[in-house]
C-alpha cells in the first residue's frame, strides 16, 4: 500500500492539533490510533484515499472527546466570547475530498484541514 496519503493526513491533522495547542501525548496517541484504523480502511477501499484526511481528523476529534480528558478539538475561536464553547467540524461528513473546518454554531467556513 502507498502510505503517502496516510502521512499527508497525519501531517495536516498534527498541524491543526499544534495550531490549537493540543499536540500533546494524548492527542498524538489518538492520531496514531486513527492512522492505524484508516490504514486498514484504505487498504480495503483504495478509491477512498481522497477521504482519509478528513476521516482521520474526525476520528481524532471523537477519540479526544471520548477519552479521559473529554477534550473538544478544535474549539471555535471566531464566535463572540459570550457564545457557548463549541467545536468546529469537518465538512463534508465523509471527510473529503476537500475537507474543511466549519463552525458548528454559525456554519461559517473557518479553514481547510491543515490550515488552522
Average pLDDT, rounded to a whole number, is 93
Q: Radius of gyration from the CA trace? A: 14 Å
* Major beta sheet, strand line-up: 1-2-3
The total count of helices amounts to 3
Largest sheet: 3 strands, antiparallel
Which sequence of SSEs, written as H and E, runs from N to C? HHHEEE
Query: How much helicity do the residues have?
Result: 40-55%
Structural class: mainly alpha
Poorly predicted parts: none
Query: Structurally, how many domains make up the residues?
Result: 1
Beta content comes to 5-15%
How many E strands? Answer: 3
- Overall 3D geometry? globular
Distance between the termini: 29 Å
Structure described in brief:
The chain is mostly helical and 116 residues long. The chain has helices at residues 4-19, 25-44, 52-66; strands spanning 88-91, 100-103, 109-112.
Give the topology.
Elements: H1 4-19, H2 25-44, H3 52-66, E1 88-91, E2 100-103, E3 109-112
Antiparallel strand pairs: 1-2, 2-3
Helix pairs in contact: 1-2, 1-3, 2-3
Describe the protein in words:
- The structure is a single chain.
- This protein has helices at 4-19, 25-44, 52-66, and strands spanning 88-91, 100-103, 109-112.
- A 3-stranded antiparallel β-sheet has the order 1-2-3.
- 32% of the residues are buried.
- It is mostly helical and 116 residues long.
- It has one domain (3-112).
- Strand 1 (88-91) and strand 2 form a beta hairpin.
- The longest helix is centred in the first third of the chain and has 20 residues, at 25-44.
- The N and C termini lie far apart (29 Å).
- Helix 1 packs antiparallel against helix 2 and helix 1 (4-19) crosses helix 3.
- The protein has 3 helices and 3 strands, in the order αααβββ.
- The model has no long low-confidence stretch (mean pLDDT 93).
